[in-house]
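Need residues for this backbone.
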């Protein structure tokens, strides 16, 4: 099947060919200019409005000076972040979803973190960001008496990717360094100002007017799994199990954990009822786990099992068991917590490796001080009650051989507990299983993150920083498997209007407004930060030049222009090399 990126590339090539044909035949008006897939729309309209808006020059110069100070601080941070990102990519070139080249493209549906379901809101937010950014340049140009030749939008085919203001180059060069700095900083200043306003509205009246729907939201159903076969699909909300009401995902999970009945009846928020025949599907597996992902476990020692409670009951008192899959494959394996013993050469202590010699190898822990360890949760709970310096007896299996070791626990590097020196794989014997086949959606978590719900103690700056990370939540937050695209698509089913000050708008408008504010804030922060990278042709590169000129002018150098050029070129090349390394090194070297 053709992937999305291939279709997009084919469409771009088709657009370029059509554009070349129209250009060669003189069909394009003067205000449309075409260069490959880039289209620029030029206009002189709006210049009179800029002149009117620029009249309080003292105010706008003060605004520009404030913005210049902010831009210099963000520039310094951007320089460090980009440089460290490049170094990290070269030292540890591990490909991740974050470093995929496709995710450099700000195209919803191609970029993994810009969902197609939120495309209208993302495009609208991008337009807002581009207009206020370039509008800032145009406004400060007129404040500093620099003529604006034209202004307009730049599009990648039909998608807005930039806006531009074309100040008169000669007048700009003749203006003072301070005037140029204020003009170049105005764009990012406006982006950050718009982001602050959007965050304030989102965190306050908007999030306060949204509530999570009662029930367990379903973000996805495992293809061929029990829920999918029973008619439960992504976007559904489960409101009851066997006649017992559930108001959230935790209650739903607890009800399933409390019963080993194979067949359960679930009520959906739509009013329908689904009958689900539970079956044990492996949804996560360590490299040497007994079964691979998507395998269905059907028997333990010849006894049929269908549910997680039934599986746990069958394995609890057995350190070794024979498991059978739906395909008839049988595996006899130790039952416990699958761990990878830390290598003694790695930074930090490795007490188990020191006494066992198993550094860098797998070890299935079946007991600690005689207490049965069934899975990763049991092992984690036992270790949470230990202290550094405590001696424990660790029993388990390595390559099928039973081994027992006396271990003196070290200081845990992150928690106030003892440390055994292992990384623990989720589930039993390295297998995570699911008997219902759904993926829940953390609707309450996301609403709380943007200031709704019961609150989490974050201040405004912390909440803004955390909110910026939400589109990447599935790869940056260990306990979250879903990103936050806003209140769109199937995710709109998981929220309703609450009791806040904007409740009168109704569910649809308030969720649309919340999504738009989220992406306006997110895109304006990204635009502002990216444009502060000190490299040409970004605003940060121009501000770097004027700032370097100001510093160099204080030194008795014979060729101050050459010194300025050397500094700006060196820093610019370092930024370019770091950006390229961050994007491509994981793919080429990983």
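Answer:
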């Amino acid at each position: 099947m053709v992937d999305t990126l291939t279709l997009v590339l084919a469409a771009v090539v088709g657009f370029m060919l059509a554009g070349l044909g129209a250009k060669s035949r003189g069909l394009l008006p003067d205000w449309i200019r075409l260069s490959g897939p880039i289209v620029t729309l030029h206009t002189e309209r709006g210049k009179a409005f800029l002149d009117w808006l620029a009249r309080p020059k003292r105010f706008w110069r003060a605004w520009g000076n404030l913005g210049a100070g902010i831009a210099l601080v963000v520039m310094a941070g951007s320089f460090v972040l980009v440089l460290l990102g490049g170094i990290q990519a070269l030292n540890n070139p591990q490909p991740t979803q974050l470093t995929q080249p496709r995710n450099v493209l700000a195209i919803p549906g191609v970029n993994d973190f810009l969902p197609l379901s939120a495309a209208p809101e993302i495009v609208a937010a991008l337009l807002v960001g581009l207009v206020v950014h370039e509008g800032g340049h145009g406004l400060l140009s007129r404040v500093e008496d620099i003529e604006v030749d034209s202004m307009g939008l730049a599009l990648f085919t039909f998608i807005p990717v930039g806006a531009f203001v074309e100040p008169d180059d000669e007048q700009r060069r003749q203006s003072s360094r301070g005037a140029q700095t204020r003009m170049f900083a105005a764009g990012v200043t406006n982006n950050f100002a718009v982001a602050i306003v959007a965050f304030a509205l989102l965190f306050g009246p908007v999030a306060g007017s949204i509530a999570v729907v009662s029930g367990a939201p379903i973000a996805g159903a495992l293809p061929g799994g029990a829920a999918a076969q029973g008619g439960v699909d992504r976007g559904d909300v489960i409101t009851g199990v066997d006649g017992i009401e559930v108001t959230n995902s935790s209650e739903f999970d607890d009800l399933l954990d409390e019963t080993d009945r194979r067949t359960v009846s679930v009520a959906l928020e739509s009013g329908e009822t689904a009958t689900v025949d539970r079956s044990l599907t492996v949804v996560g597996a360590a490299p040497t786990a007994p079964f691979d992902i998507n395998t269905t476990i059907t028997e333990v020692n010849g006894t049929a099992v269908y549910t997680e409670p039934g599986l746990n009951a069958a394995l609890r008192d057995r350190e070794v068991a024979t498991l059978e899959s739906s395909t008839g494959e049988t595996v006899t394996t130790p039952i416990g917590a699958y761990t990878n013993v830390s290598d003694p050469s790695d930074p930090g202590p490795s007490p188990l490796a020191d006494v066992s010699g198993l550094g860098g190898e797998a070890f299935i822990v079946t007991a600690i001080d005689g207490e049965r360890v069934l899975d990763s949760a049991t092992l984690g709970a036992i270790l949470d009650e230990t202290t550094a310096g405590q001696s424990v007896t660790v029993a388990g299996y390595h390559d099928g051989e039973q081994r027992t070791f006396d271990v003196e626990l070290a200081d845990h590097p992150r928690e106030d507990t003892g440390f055994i020196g292992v990384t623990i794989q989720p589930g039993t014997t390295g297998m995570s299983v699911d008997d219902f086949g759904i993926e829940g959606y953390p609707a309450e978590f996301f609403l709380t993150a943007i200031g709704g719900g019961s609150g989490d103690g974050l201040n405004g700056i912390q909440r803004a920083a955390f909110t910026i990370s939400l589109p990447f939540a599935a790869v940056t937050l260990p306990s979250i498997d879903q990103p936050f695209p806003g209140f769109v698509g199937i995710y709109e089913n998981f929220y309703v209007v609450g009791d806040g000050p904007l409740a009168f708008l109704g569910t649809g408008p308030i969720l649309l407004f919340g999504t738009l504010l989220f992406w306006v804030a997110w895109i304006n922060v990204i635009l502002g930060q990216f444009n502060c990278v000190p490299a040409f042709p970004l605003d940060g590169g121009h501000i770097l030049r004027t700032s370097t000129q100001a510093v160099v002018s204080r030194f008795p150098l014979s060729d101050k222009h050459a010194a300025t050029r050397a500094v700006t070129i060196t820093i610019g090349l370092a930024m370019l090399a770091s950006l390229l390394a961050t994007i491509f090194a994981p793919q080429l070297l990983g």
